[in-house]
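Page 42, continued from yesterday. The earlier attempt failed because a stray header line got pasted into the input along with the sequence. Redoing it now with the clean sequence only.
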Amino acid sequence: MLSTSILMAQKKSPEQPTGILFLFDASQSMYARWETNTKYEVAKKMLGEMVDSLQGMQNLELAMRVYGHTKKYPPQDCDDTRLEVPFGKDNGFSIKKRLEEISPSGTTPIARSLEECGGDFPKSPARNIIILITDGIEECNGDPCAVSAMLQKKGIALKPFVIGLGLNKDFIKQFECVGNYFDATDEVQFKNAFNIVITQALNNTTAQVNLLDIHSHPVETNTSITFYDQRSGAVLYNFMHTINSKGVPDTVQIDPLGMYRVTAHTLPSVSKDSVTLTAGKHNLIALDAPQGDLQLRIDGANESNQLFAIVRKEGESVTLNVQEFTDITRYIVGDYDLEVLTTPRIYIDNVNIAQSKTTSVQIPTPGIATIICNAPGYGDILVEKDNKLEWVDRLSINSVKESIVLQPGLYRIVFRPKNSQSVIYTIEKTFRIASGISISVNIN
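This time it went through. Structure tokens are written below.
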């Protein structure tokens, strides 16, 4: 009979369908005596009891692939693997009936059988699980570890379970890279291992993501969290982090069988690789995510007029965020460089974001220059900085009047009418912009 924990799992069946594929060893060695009977008879009996207990469970389908049973050994036939019972609901009777008809006879093509398992699962999304029951190691020069890794990387199946029946201890290490290995040295251990495997296969478990401040307190929150499959990179879970009514990070249901990369989408994001969970327990996952706020303001202005600043990590060229003025945005503590998209650009380096504090950056109110020309032409606006002229903007060649918002400073216009084909017609005009002041600049 199933353990109490498995019966509880039945009552609260997972929302996502689960497909369990039993990969059963029926090679010649399974005729060996083990405890009260042959290994095959003991394994057949316990698998039969297991599938009986799973009858009627919601969101669960079972299947069985067998190897080493269609050809005699010798000679060795490494293609001796077959899906004997395809996936279906409440098909425990079919699995038991087929096991009664099978007789161990052949070799042990584990890698080939695992590879074939990849095509046995239905195409619809599900938690696909392989449970390998064997008493021997690969005998066909295949690489079960590589095949298992491929199935996981492609997202075809979760990390398999392996139950070894009286395996030589020298062989055990060869299965640790295949999946979660359970060593059954006798019938009691085999039954216990089977119960543990099914419990883990059926139960989702809980996790709590702690976003830590600089004091290692889990007080950061209100950012999205993504769980990626570590091998395939597939997105598995997404949720918005929150502190619950008890003042602690809220609990989420996470499949305990996977290995995850957990990312908090802070600015910049923070991640933790190779996260594994303990089934049936409440797991704590800690990410260092200390944050503070950045507020952008214009001196004396109540509205941003759609002004933005590019935010980059100090010394880096990659754009981290484009923040609008008057917004308050959270960033991981540290130093940042700002490029304010004014005319001309304003560069502010080494802006420090501190834990739980708001850093305010304020720029001068711009002015407005209305440029008036007698005729359309080619004109550049230059700003004087440190005895140098820097290009700021270009006048429209089809307009004789335009208004340009400029930061306070000393400017020059270099202009030539479109129809004048000689540099002697160049006109140079100097003007100064003050905060909040509008001026007219006539080019004659």
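Notes: The helical segments are 4-11, 39-53, 92-101, 110-117, 144-153, 169-176, 187-202.
Reminder to self: strip header lines before submitting.
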